[in-house]
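Notes to self after the call with IL:
- keep both proteins in one doc
- input above output, always
- annotate only the second one for now

Protein 1:
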Amino acid sequence: MTNQALFAIGIFFVTYAFIISEKLHRTIVAMSGGILMILFGIVTQEQALQHIDFNTLGLLVGMMILVAVTAQTGIFKYVAIRAAKAAKGKPIRILVYLSVITAVASAFLDNVTTVLLIVPVTFSITRQLQLNPLPFLISEIIASNAGGTATLIGDPPNIMIGSAVPELDFMAFLLNLTPVIIVIMAVTILCFVLIYRKELVTSPELSAKIMELNERDELTDPALLKKSLTVMALTIIGFMLHGALHLESATIALSGAFLLLLLTGEHYLEEAISKVEWNTIFFFIGLFVLVSGLVETGTIAKLAGEAIKLTGKDPLHTSLLILWLSAIASAFVDNIPFVATMIPMIKEMGALGITNLEPLWWSLALGACLGGNGTLIGASANVIVAGLASKEGYNISFVGFLKVAFPLMLISIVISHLYVYLRYFIW
């Protein structure tokens, strides 16, 4: 291993240690780690820029602007009251409803968009019931990543795999991944109920007050609501058709955001821009550059290559190794560069004699997407929700999230392990 690779690994682990310790703000730490990769010559500035996923950043900024303008219509409070009333004001039932809504929405949007829409609803509900929102937010993070695994358009790793393997179209993802995700979500929701049943208790009076609320009173600006929902619907349709339109999700999100600003007038611009989570955006930039050091020095490729050698190219063992390796790696490293490294490796294995690569692709998708639930920095949605919570005065700590999420991630991978084994090698 070269000195540069050792430097890259050292910077990576020191940076992550500071992020986990929470002694400094994670954005400052991540950006500092990324800058050190450049200062030590591990990557050039040009290489660092190439590794920054501007599609992810553009998607985040566009959706944050859309949500900021739409929130002024009162629609999120309206949805919050409807959901709470449907659940009879019972906190555990509300948590289950919001988890299911988040998972389903994440399958047909992307999970980042979904949490940007659902988190304001969650804060509205928890304020009404005087509850700690963190159990709801953690449940929604896990549900968003699980739900996003179910379809081609739900999570960036799936989009990358579908792009690299054209025969794996929307229906292929739906038929191969949705069944196991339904099982995983059912088990996960049961775990949520067991974990939080004692914590989420409110008074009958607060529940009764929820039932007395008139959700229509929250819709304060019908004209803005009509414009916002129209643009939001067009944006969602754009996400679903982005492959046919040959447009990246960032282009669609930013087009929707500025179309809405064009329709509503410039007096919404400054407030919408101020609502963008710039701390989160720069945190992602720092992480992308930090991971670029591992990619450019060949560390990630070497790790994946050595792991695959252990299987002797056996399809079953290789599939299961990819599943577990992807899950553990994606819990600590952004899954986008990891998947980018694994795709050519799996293709090369096909050239070396493994005739049926399909189980390997599904294992990669399940491991990379579900593995993002393992830690607070494992997936984009996790970081976004943590940033939104921080703005509201609530801290989702790295260790606190890890205690709940990592065991649930392992359970989901065990279920996926059984599914891959039974469906592709037994049945």
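Protein 2 (the one to annotate):
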Amino acid sequence: MYPAEIVKPMREELTAVGFNQCTTAESVTSAINQKGTTLVVVNSVCGCAAANARPGVRLSLANDKTPAQLITVFAGVDKEATSEARSLMVPFPPSSPSIALFNDGELVHMLERHHIEGRSADIIAENLKEAYNAHC
């Protein structure tokens, strides 16, 4: 577990743009199973989360179509919530960071760590915008 003061600014990068922080399995399940689209970000303290994932996600929201709901869990902190989110991302193996788009509870788009690491925030944003345009 990471200390709260360490992850607070990393959480706020997403909550400041409208993400709801899920800390329980129930809150994750409830959000994903709602009708419509839900973007789930598995947040992380790693460098690729800071340089690529969080900025890419924020940039992606500047689009005509966006997910109805935005939620995030923090790997290494919100253990129960992260485990539940990852269980709904099967068949993809657990990775941090990762970004998943659900539509009516069904996984329709996934970015694993290997899709994030080494790619610019702009490339991640464009990938997500394409998914939003197709599913939102």
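Annotation: The domain at 4-135 is CATH 3.40.30.10 (Glutaredoxin). The beta strands are 20-21, 37-43, 69-74, 98-103, 106-111.
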